[in-house]
Design a protein that fits this description.
The complex is a heterodimer of chains A (284) and B (229). Chain A has 284 residues and is of the alpha+beta class. Helices cover 29% and strands 18% of the residues of chain A. A 4-stranded antiparallel β-sheet of chain A has the order 2-11-4-5, with no helix packed on it. In chain A, strands 3-10-9-6 form a 4-stranded mixed β-sheet, with no helix packed on it. A two-stranded antiparallel sheet of chain A has the order 1-12. In chain A, strand 9 and strand 10 form a beta hairpin. Chain A starts with 7 loop residues before the first helix and ends in a 7-residue tail after the last helix. Classes of the chains: A alpha+beta (284), B alpha+beta (229). At the A-B interface, helix 2 and helix 3 of A face helix 2 and strand 4 of B.
Chain lengths: 284, 229
């Protein structure tokens, strides 16, 4: 039942409905798009599964840089100093450990942590292969490199360490996308690590939502339709080029509006920022 | 309507008692003419919509697509049909499925996937699920994906019933008897009266080898078509 016709008492009693009114579901998006098509619409004969495909792509596009739905998980770090990326992980927003005061201590990315695979080699340095012809790998965990403030290249040229790891006392990490792991420096051994990340809004496993509950914020609704229309006509031969161009522009414009709406600046927040602007920060 | 049409035809053709049409002949050609007119509705609706899309149709009594939909709508049927292991057996009186006319018991539309695309579709992220099911044509059945769906509602256009002018013999003459169990009037709208007469005239003209009748009937038919479009 659409949430706007649910009695308030039922809404408050059912936790799964809380805050739902701000969203529109993927199914509604698909049905609305099909329903709103006119007979002479370029996309009037498009099948439902093609509409669904483009709706899913629109969700992805908008979840990446507009939806601002940040998920978080807290995990105790294993002795191998790694954590496995969650199944719905697409990219991280921030990685921190939980300090003794209970606050998050943001960590820094360190691209000098070794994520290389260790191939097994013979005494004459030949790579060893399995019966299937695949290179054999060492099972030992990757060694965590120590961090230096300054690095020397082979030519002994003094170069600054461009990553921020040396400036963050909170430790460092590297995302090993191929292995699906986050590897940490030894500073956070035994600590609880919090990973804040974004997904694509389409994951239906345990960490995600039921297929019927996949949703996006209503501010993005128009952008979703614009994307769908553009993509559904983009490769059609009988659609004039200017119609395609207008559709593309419409998508970028509606995405801009959606982004702007999602990043609302409230007067109180502005006042808060200005209030802090004249405060002296020690050590700067 | 069937008796009036029969009488009109006899009046036109049976001049000087040379063009008698037996009820059996009439019934045979009546089936053909009804099917011909019924079949043309679907193309007519498309043409009327194309016309409307060009801005040449107005609302109200002149809305041709609306009128044709009414004509077709007389044959519209909705039926709940069980699906066994993903297969739905189509009703025997089915003429055409309505576009997006199949829904699951919870009202979710089951969309058509062309046979050439289904194998690829099944391996994509938009593969059919209970929320986004599809069907493909498969002989006199439809194959529904996913096969967990066990009941659907099918909206379709049924075949028109064959018209039959029934009679009893009284004094060696056929007397119209609409109370016979096998009686069936034309199922088309009364507005098709002239259309039926002209088409039947044309066919009977051929049958009787009356060139004049055929020419006049064809001429009138063309005139009517021109006026309609």
């Amino acid at each position: 039942m659409p949430i706007n016709i649910i009695p308030s008492a039922d809404y408050y009693a059912d936790e799964t409905l809380h805050g739902n009114y701000q969203f529109i579901t993927l199914e509604d998006v698909v049905n609305n798009y099909i329903m709103s098509g006119q007979d002479d619409d370029f996309t009037s004969n498009v099948s439902r599964h093609q509409v669904l495909f483009q709706a899913r792509r629109a969700f992805r596009e908008l979840y990446y840089d507009m939806a601002q739905e940040i998920k978080g998980i807290a995990l105790e770090l294993s002795p191998q100093l790694t954590i496995t990326l969650p199944p719905d992980f697409v990219n991280y927003v921030r990685i921190s450990f939980v300090g003794s005061d209970g606050l998050l201590k943001p960590m820094a990315a360190n691209d000098k942590i070794n994520i290389a695979k260790d191939y097994l080699q013979s005494h004459d340095y030949e790579i060893l292969f399995s019966a299937e012809g695949c290179a054999l790998e060492s099972q030992k965990p990757s060694v965590v490199e120590p961090m230096y403030s300054w690095q020397f290249s082979e030519a002994q040229v003094f170069q600054p360490n461009k990553n921020l790891a040396n400036k963050f006392a909170n430790g460092s990490y590297i995302i090993d996308r191929n292995s699906g792991l986050i590897r940490f420096g030894s500073e956070v051994f035994g600590k609880t690590v919090v990973l804040e990340y974004i997904s694509d809004g389409l994951y239906t496993g345990c960490e995600g939502r039921d297929e019927a509950d996949l949703r996006i914020h209503k501010f993005a609704e128009d952008a979703v339709y614009s994307w769908m229309y553009w993509k559904l006509i983009e490769r059609r031969r009988n659609v004039p080029a200017n119609a395609k161009m207008i559709a593309r522009k419409e998508w970028f414009n509606s995405r801009r509006i959606a982004k702007k709406r999602m990043s609302t600046i409230r007067p109180d927040e502005l006042r808060q920022i200005f209030k802090g602007s004249n405060r002296w920060i020690k050590g700067v | 309507m069937i008796d009036t049409i029969y009488k009109v035809l006899l009046t036109i053709l049976n001049k000087e008692n040379q063009g008698y049409i037996s009820p059996e002949e009439f019934n045979l050609l009546a089936i053909n003419v009804q099917n011909e007119i019924f079949r043309s509705y679907f193309n007519d609706e498309n043409q009327a919509k194309n016309k409307a899309n060009r801005g040449l149709t107005n609302r109200g009594y002149g809305n041709q697509a609306f009128h044709i939909r009414q004509d077709i709508g007389k044959f519209a049927v909705s039926a709940d049909i069980a699906v066994a292991a993903g297969l739905l057996t189509l009703p025997s009186n089915l003429y055409k499925l309505e576009d997006r006319g199949i829904t699951t018991s919870s009202g979710i539309p089951v969309d058509e996937a062309e046979r050439g695309t289904i194998s690829t579709l099944l391996r994509t992220e938009s593969a059919p699920t209970e929320l986004y099911p599809v069907f493909e044509n498969n002989g006199n059945t439809l194959k529904i994906y996913p096969n967990t769906i066990d009941n659907v509602n099918v909206r379709y256009i049924r075949k028109p019933l064959d018209p039959k002018w029934t009679y009893t013999i009284v004094a060696n003459k056929e007397m119209y008897n609409p109370f016979n169990g096998s009686f069936q009037d034309f199922e088309l709208d009364y507005s098709e009266f002239s259309n039926i007469v002209l088409r039947m005239l044309s066919l009977f003209g051929l049958n009787l080898r009356e060139v004049e009748v055929v020419q006049v009937a064809e001429g009138l038919k063309d005139k009517m078509n021109l006026k309609d479009n």
